[in-house]
Specification:
There is one protein chain. The chain is of the alpha/beta class and 298 residues long. The protein has a single domain, classed as Alpha-Beta Complex (Inosine-uridine Nucleoside N-ribohydrolase, Chain A). Helices cover 38% and strands 19% of the residues. The protein is built from eleven helices and twelve strands. Helix 2 runs parallel beside helix 10, helix 4 crosses helix 5 and helix 5 packs across helix 7. The termini are far apart.
Length: 298
């Protein structure tokens, strides 16, 4: 399956969003955008991904905080736009111990349940560590023919070095690539890193528009370094959802299935088959879609 070609077909696409929503401030934009594109996205459910950094005490705490942030943000979207609030579920509280051993969770079971209940392909769009998704595939291998995975993970194939989502669960990353499931990879550095948002642009479009707009602006403003005069922020996660809404916002090419090595470099010789590697994202088009969808129509 060529995922980009499938996305280019007219009609609404069935989607599950897997997100570490409390990790940063960009997942909230992605969740809002997914909820506000009913002409292109049938958002079946949202699942909370684990993460561990300065915003969480543990992987389990990161997942739990993300679960509550999904509820908080989706409620604001529903109130501001009258959008339907999707069901959302808790994910894994730990990482996979090796590439063959899944972690049981409500999210893993729900991903499989929704995928198997749908006649067509479910696009599982993941914007955090891929633990829930890989565990769903290993626990319920019958979904391999029912899903396509769109993942913001890793860096571009010409970059070395670890990336937060991929390092978050390297075993799950390798499990996904080894599964044979169709994968469309949105790499961070070198590709999605072009989605730079200047704070004054954000304020001009969304400040005062709605409680949702103010919430998103406040989240971004809270990240501004003290005494910074000029400042911007990469809004990584919207790349994947905007790509489902309008696949013209990115260009992709085939790439050998990678295996993530201990030093975080890719080995392109270990696994058979290919994935789709996004090579370019069109910054202005992506943000035009974002602001057009998120602004409350007066």
């Amino acid at each position: 399956m060529n995922i980009r070609e499938e996305l280019k077909k007219p009609g609404v696409k069935r989607m599950i969003l897997d997100t570490d929503t409390y990790n940063e401030i960009d997942d909230q934009f992605a969740l809002s955008l997914a909820m506000l594109a009913p002409d292109r996205i049938d958002l079946a459910c949202v699942t909370a991904a684990p993460f561990h950094n300065s915003n969480s005490e543990s992987w389990a705490d990161g997942m739990e905080k993300s679960y509550h942030e999904i509820g908080r943000c989706s409620s604001l979207v529903a109130r501001a736009h009258g959008a339907k609030q999707p069901p959302y579920y808790r994910g894994s509280s730990e990482r996979m111990p090796d590439p063959e051993t899944p972690v049981k969770s409500e999210a893993a079971d729900k991903i499989a349940e929704y995928a198997l209940a749908y006649d067509g392909i479910t696009f599982v769009t993941a914007i955090g560590a891929i633990t829930n998704v890989s565990s769903a595939i290993l626990l319920h291998p019958e979904i391999r023919e029912k899903i396509a995975v769109i993942w913001l993970g890793g860096h571009a194939k010409w970059f070395d070095g670890g990336e937060f989502n991929m390092q978050g669960d390297k075993n799950a990353s390798n499990a996904l690539f080894a599964s044979g499931v169709p994968v469309l990879l949105f790499p961070c550095q070198g590709v999605v890193s072009h989605l730079i948002l200047e704070i004054h642009e954000l304020e001009a479009h969304l400040r005062g528009d709605s409680p949702l707009g103010d919430y998103l602006c406040d989240n971004v403003a809270a990240c501004k370094p003290k005494n910074a005069v000029s400042w911007s922020r990469v809004i990584w996660d919207i790349s994947t959802v905007a790509g489902v809404i309008e696949p013209g916002t990115f260009s992709s090419s085939p790439c050998p299935r990678p295996w993530v090595m201990d030093d975080n470099r890719y080995d392109f010789t270990k696994l058979p088959g290919e994935i789709e590697h996004v090579d370019v994202v069109h910054r202005d088009w992506v943000f035009s879609i974002l602001f057009d969808r998120l602004r409350v129509k007066k």
